[in-house]
Amino acid sequence: MMLAAKFESGLTYDSFLGAFATDEQKNRWRAIHEQVSLTDEQRNLLSGFVRDMKVMVLAGAWCGDCVNQCPIFDHFAMAADTIDVRYFDRDEHADLGEILSTCGAQRVPSVLFLSEDHHVCGRYGDRTLAKYRDMAATQLGTACPSGIATVETSLLLQVTQEWLNEFERIQLMLRMSARLRQLHHD
């Protein structure tokens, strides 16, 4: 797959919701977006990113896990000019879903991190460790979150920090890359 062309075909956060979400789904996404808040320390960290990061998010507007996590990425992108996030509907982009398949399935959200020149740097998703721990503690069987119920604030804070840790890890990978340091003369 030509990642540069694929990335460019992705949608912004608002465009993705406009194209794929029902009014009810948009309301769920909006409610979580309003609950996400970054601390001053988190905003300072993000604003200090110097390498451009391209972030491809495979998602579904209908997906509760996407409702609860994708708004976090939008906050990150607003806090850092170097983060460019593009969203891809899982059902419309089966080719990307195949690449990001996790545990034998097209799980969402799944994130593919790219360098400024479209080299793969990492992938992450479908849920963070805090979310899996919460699920293990509260569920006996399999379940798929609907995004209808509100997210517990402390869990949302943990999930936000865990995603931020991954964004920072990729940023540091890009910052320490000998190839990119030579390209940027730093």
Oligomeric state of the chains?
Answer: single chain
Task: Name the CATH superfamily classification.
Answer: Glutaredoxin
- The fold-level CATH name is Glutaredoxin
How far from one another are the termini? Answer: 31 Å
Which runs of at least 5 residues are low in confidence (pLDDT < 50)? none
User: Would you list the SSEs in sequence order as H and E?
Assistant: HHHHEHEHEEHHH
Label the structural class.
alpha+beta
Provide a count of the helices. Answer: 9
Strand order of the largest sheet: 2-1-3-4
Specify the CATH class: Alpha Beta
Report the principal-axis shape: globular
Helix coverage percent: 40-55%
What is the percentage of strand-forming residues?
5-15%
Question: Nearest-angstrom radius of gyration?
Answer: 16 Å
The number of domains: 1
Mean pLDDT: 92
What is the strand tally? 4
What keyword list fits this structure?
186 residues; alpha+beta; Glutaredoxin; 4-stranded mixed β-sheet; 9 helices; 53% helix; globular
Give a brief outline of the structure.
The chain is an alpha+beta fold and 186 residues long. It has nine helices and four strands.
Describe the fold and architecture:
This protein is α+β, with helices and mostly antiparallel strands. It is globular and about 50 Å long. A hairpin with a 5-residue loop joins strand 3 (110-114) and strand 4 (120-125). The protein is 53% helix and 13% strand. The longest helix is centred in the C-terminal third of the chain and has 24 residues, at 153-176. The mean pLDDT is 92. The two termini are 31 Å apart. Strands 2-1-3-4 form a four-stranded mixed β-sheet. It has helices at residues 3-8, 13-20, 23-35, 40-47, 64-79, 94-99, 129-138, 153-176, 178-184; strands at 53-59, 83-89, 110-114, 120-125. The chain contains nine helices and four strands, in the order H-H-H-H-E-H-E-H-E-E-H-H-H. The protein has one domain (3-184): Glutaredoxin.
